[in-house]
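Handout, section B. The chain below has 227 residues.
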Amino acid sequence: MISPSGASLSPLGQRLKELLRAERVIGDLRHYFGIGVPPGGMSFTGSRFEHLAGGGDRPEVADRITAEDLVAVQTLSVTVPAPVALDILEGRLGARLSGLLQAIPRDMDMVEAAVSDLAPGSPAARAWELLEGQSDVGWVIAGKLLARKRPRLLPVYDKVVRCALGRPRPSFWLALHAALRENDAALHRQLLELRRVAGVPETVSVLRVCDVVVWMGHRAEGHACPR
């Protein structure tokens, strides 16, 4: 149940509220996504993460990881090891992941999800565990691949975000889910408003808006966290 208006915020909710209120947020979003950049100007490569080849969650490819998805995660400064990439594209690993992806909702924002959609044992958690356990993949790459496939439901969580937000318990997914639903989904609505004011396309999910705000703000503060 969504927390009633006026209820106290969780530690993660309070931290995100502080970050989203920073004066630099709108400018950071516009800079990251190249909004208002003059011709020939540069945006961040991560601005293509959602949109490369039409997105990873478009219906015809939503339930399988494609070569375009593997390139998309490179825009966030990670690379899937070649043996794992080939197994995803041509082998048993790809078939197993496809089976799990079929059970993960595609047209659902995290704020709308049930705890059971994100909890240990869910198809999403099992897909993350399967990827994370592959040689030289780990938690960062696993999370970015799944965020590409389900951008509205599953967030990017990497070393910069962890440096900024810590390691909430019982998991980042569940802690963020709870924070988004607190106080009648106030945080979710604030992220929607930031997206609108910054002029970021609606095809960029609320979760990615949150990720970019956290990453850009933490980076600007001079923290030397790897992406």
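Note. Residues 1-6 have pLDDT under 50 and may be disordered. Compare this with the example in section A.
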